Amino acid sequence: MTSNALLCFCGSQQPYADCCEPFHLKTKQPHTPEQLMRARYSAYAVKNAVFVRESYAKEKQAENSISEIKDFANSCRFINLTVLDSGYNDETGFVTFKAHYFYQDLYCQLAENSRFIKEDGQWRYLDGEITPVADIKVKRNDTCPCGSNKKYKKCHSV
Ligand SMILES: [Zn+2]
Ligand SMILES: [Zn+2]
């Protein structure tokens, strides 16, 4: 790994080229629900709405349009992902995670226990149970909640 390699958006501390990018390029398939979950988060960060949609279970694809996924991805600044727990068997799996992002001037945490199923030999995202976390309104002179110790206006502010 070279020092200027782009680190993956999913928080793995691996280069994007060795982590989620091969899944986005479809040169590799995720072997575990956690890999798929990470690839979905990274896909939001790089605004790859097609990947996000295709990684849904077939029955869920109709209700998640590419334009809606794109609108959401475009209106957020994604900070990081924390995978708290995950597991799987031959047919189903789960990932418990927290995703951190800004939506306008709100700092948001998505805490979810998500379910995955295998379809045609591939892991797909079925649905998730969300634990409500209050969004935090950030003002320009506040310390940025991303952990940079900079003021919000000099960091993640739009
Ligand atoms: Zn990754
Ligand atoms: Zn920040």
UniProtKB/TrEMBL annotation:
Signal sequence bounds: none
InterPro entries the record matches: NTF2-like_dom_sf, SEC_C_motif, YchJ-like_M
YchJ-like middle NTF2-like domain boundaries: 32-128
Pfam families per UniProt: SEC-C, YchJ_M-like
Protein name: YchJ-like middle NTF2-like domain-containing protein
